[in-house]
Amino acid sequence: QPEVGKPTRNCYSLPGPDFTYGMYLHKRDGGVAEAIGHWDSVKAKPHVRVMPRDFVTMGRMAVGEGCSTAREFALYYKFKDIRCKDEGILRYGCKIPPGMTFGRPARPSTPFFDIMQHRYKELWMESQRARTMVQHVVKKKVRLLQHDVRGNRTTFLRTHPPPAKKESFWHPQRFEKVWTPH
């Protein structure tokens, strides 16, 4: 029976002070001093990048030399090996041209004098006035166009009634050419 208010005791005895917990790795480990003093540096291998062949330029030059058959083109390509130019000057391992800067340019500072004189408010008010004037002119043009627009056929016939037809008696065509004696 465990004692009241106390945890149960385990029956295992702990190993001595010379015991190492975990797995021991046989490496040199001199601590922080050795880590700072002896960096394990990796030598970079020189990276030679082979660019693909520039067939467009080679074809243009072959035509200029007078090649016309596939065999002539193949021989020209064999002896004139032109490669594409490396456009990526900022690839890993390439040298950066002098005077080149990275990042976004800094935003120009806001003139404090314009802020104190409420210049930006005045510019905004002018743009709003110009916008309302343009809207007013557009509305006027729309109104004028609405008066000039002719409506559908019904409204046109109401304003311009067709002329009244004269009364005529209708006869079938077979009675029109009847022979009458004189």
Task: Give a description of the structure.
Among the domains are: 50-84, no CATH class; 115-160. It is 38% helix and 0% strand. The protein contains 6 helices and no strands. The radius of gyration is 49 Å and the shape is elongated. This is CFA77 protein.
Write the topology of this structure:
Layout: H1 32-37, H2 55-65, H3 70-79, H4 112-116, H5 119-148, H6 153-159
Helix pairs in contact: 2-3
Kindly list the characteristics that best describe this protein.
182 residues, CFA77 protein, 6 helices, CFAP77, single chain, mainly alpha, elongated
What integer is the average pLDDT?
80
SSE succession: HHHHHH
Radius of gyration: 49 Å
Got a strand count?
0
Shape: elongated
Count of helix runs: 6
Which segments are poorly predicted (pLDDT under 50) over 5 or more consecutive residues? Answer: none
The secondary-structure class comes to mainly alpha
Strand content: under 5%
Spatial separation of the terminal alpha carbons = 154 Å
Helix content, binned percent = 25-40%
Q: Sheet bearing the most strands, described?
A: none
Give me a quick take on this structure.
The chain has 182 residues and is mostly helical. The chain has helices at residues 32-37, 55-65, 70-79, 112-116, 119-148, 153-159.
